[in-house]
Here is the input.
Amino acid sequence: MEQYSLIVTYLLIAAVLVYAAGYAALLAKKAGAGNGLALAAWLASAGVMATNWIACGHPPFGSMGHVMVVLSLCFMPVYLLLRQRYNLGWLKIYFVFASAIPLVGSLFMEKDVAWQRVPALQSPWFIPHVTAYMLSYALATVAFVLTVVLKIRSKSPGHPELLQYESAGYQILRLAFPFMTFGLLSGCLWAESAWGVYWSWDSKETWSLITWTLYLVHFHCRTDARLKPWAATAQVLAFIALVTTFLCVNLLPKLASALHSYA
Amino acid sequence: MIPGIILLVVLVMFMLAGAIPVMGGAQVAIFHTPFFILLTAGLSISVLTCCWKRRSINFRNAGFQLTHLGIIVILIGAMVGFLFAKKSEFALPISGEHEIRQLPTGVDDSYFNLDFGITVTDFRVDFYEQTGQKANPTPKHFQASLTIRDKDNSTTKHELMVNHPVEHDGWRFFLMSYDRESRRYVELSARNDPGRNIVFAGIAMLMLGISITCFRKNEGSNGTV
Here is the structure.
């Protein structure tokens, strides 16, 4: 087990450094080098997930350190999809940046490589529930970064590309929302088969519903001229709630969730 | 739409209040207050008004209607459950002889009477191999064998596992835990919730509606959701 732990640590550090190098290359407009580095970093983090999987013998979705790696792995495939479907290839640099963040988080968490899956987690819902949430979190993060960049740049005049940011953020959130909804609803169905209650106001559940409702507020604000100025605020609040749902509920003992004590 | 948004914001504030930790998890009580139920009723009315205003039959609108009506159906199912669901948590000895025909309601000393009897005839548990300094091994799998005897004395055998409830006569039984020290009893939870299928139908509608609405090729950044 010791050696697995070491492999995971080294691979994580390597992946973070290579993502940083890729980010720098893209900033310097060296697209070829940037692509190569991003791919190498993605493969290194895939190696982390594979090592975790081998070490614990189950899909490595159970501890926060594991899930952060899965989240990071979601960014690049999502980027490729957006480039294909919505012509959003210019977002690459944001995705490279966002990929590195959860890996840094994972580095500082307990690397419980030998995590053991308790019976409640042995369900067909396990993989779809976590994957859908990780996809939606990856997408929502990029949409959030776009909104922040948009708000900062719109203070100084003369940025014709800003309209593009606005539209891209919206398209990304539209893609994120069904996955988030699936994560929420599959959680209800799973809870019902494990404990007999589809909803019990556990703190993780309440926070995830707060997040979902705030995104709902954001979408509705967009459609009404009088409410439109509030849309960006709603999105920022929704993202803060998302981070609280994902991290704080598990990491802050005061908010501890009885039912989601694993991740 | 503005009243609807205001209600959603109030709902968020309610949930924030319900997420503030209080000793013993007492904050959850806020979701059972009449005010919260009034709030969800207000939201339902606002959503229904919205659906009525946009009634028309085409594929684009189908996503909108399914999403919004799905939420209403979930809330109706939850209300039915809130009013009529029977729930019980109890321990059952692993003896093969001790049969129960009454489930404690958890309130006073009252019971739900069952039309059948339950016995736990057997119990098995497997553990993960112990690693490191962990004091207690983690259970890998546990299951209980149940025998259910109906009024006409016919018996059926069921294997009850975590994530695999046993259903009988409207009741669903869930394996929650077991006696870790001496394995003399198992802890079960039982539900009889007439709102369950309504909620699940609403979940299906909501999921389908949101998929149609969001995966549809959109008409630029100002498209309606």
